[in-house]
Specification:
It is built from 7 helices and 10 strands. It is of the alpha+beta class.
């Protein structure tokens, strides 16, 4: 019970990412870290969004605005309140090793509120359909849920926001080629779902590597978290599904069930597709095992 309460505390410690289109936003807990991935729609001719936050006396004001790297996005920030002054940007790029993302910092406010303060900024897109992000608070908390089960969803939403959502295209390409060549191979029918699952994990791995190559063009920051959270787990998963003897033995149902559930916690779950396919494969194996066991028991009773 204490572990469950501790987990709930970690989950609620920081705000989950928010994704907005053509919508103003007010931060409810501005001292806790939260990031908003915002964008202007192609139909939006206004190209203006407002962000607000209320700080009590003595609280630290920290607000930053970013642009995705390797894009043509442009935006300017207009400060609507006069209590704060813009902080000089010493490090123009920031690296998010968990979501495998690099952002360009274009605006920063940082100081301690001497009185109860409301800060309001207006972000104006300088090109049609501009994308940008607004972050507030210090990143001193860990939201376990966002870094485990929700990670695949968050990363795929971020890829859509950065216009680099290639994972489903990789998966479809591998799957179509495999299904076209499958009649020529000696593979059995039960191997189809696990093989497709391995393609989902492979697609996730390729996406991470491509994003990493983009990141190193803008920042020299390296973090082992990316390797431990994305690269290593998916290499191990692909090995066990496609190449290991255990993955082809009578322990398949346990292997598929364990990987399907475990990858929801670490590795991105192949964008949920890999995890889902493995769980379906495990369920089929378990059903076949129960049917076979039931048939043997009936035969034994008759004898």
């Amino acid at each position: 019970m204490m572990l469950f309460l501790f987990w709930l505390l970690l989950v609620s410690a920081s705000g989950s990412p928010v994704f907005l289109t053509d919508t103003d936003y007010t931060f409810k807990h501005p001292t806790n870290y939260q990031i908003v991935y915002a964008e202007f729609s192609e139909e939006n001719t206004r190209n203006r969004q407002f962000f607000a936050a209320n700080f009590l006396k003595g609280e630290e004001i920290l607000l930053e605005v970013f642009l995705p790297v390797a894009t043509k996005d442009e935006a300017i920030v207009l400060q609507m309140t006069s209590h704060e002054r813009e902080f000089p940007i010493q490090e123009p790029y920031t690296h998010d090793p968990i979501n495998v993302l690099a952002l360009k910092k274009i605006y920063k406010v940082q100081q301690v509120a001497t009185v109860n303060t409301t800060i309001v900024i207006e972000v104006v897109g300088r090109i049609k359909g501009a994308h940008y992000a607004v972050a507030i608070g210090r990143d001193s908390s860990v939201n376990i849920f966002d870094y485990t089960i929700s990670l695949a969803y968050i990363i795929q939403r971020i890829r859509m926001w950065t216009r680099t959502f290639y994972i489903p295209f990789f998966f479809l390409a591998f799957s179509i080629i495999f299904l076209l060549l499958w009649p020529l191979s000696r593979a059995r029918t039960w191997e189809i779902l696990p093989k497709l699952a391995s393609f989902a994990y492979l697609s996730w791995l390729i996406d991470v590597l491509l994003q990493y190559f983009v990141i190193i063009q803008f920042t020299n920051h390296k973090n082992v978290i990316t390797f431990l959270l994305h690269i290593l787990p998916n290499i191990i998963i692909i090995y066990f599904i496609s190449f290991s003897a255990v993955g082809k033995s009578n322990k398949q149902k346990e292997v598929f069930l364990g990987i399907g559930l475990g990858s929801l916690v670490v590795g991105g779950a192949g964008g949920y597709v890999g995890s889902l396919l493995l769980l379906i494969s495990a369920a089929k194996k378990i059903t076949q095992y129960m049917d076979t066991k039931g048939s043997k028991e009936k035969l034994f009773c008759k004898v």
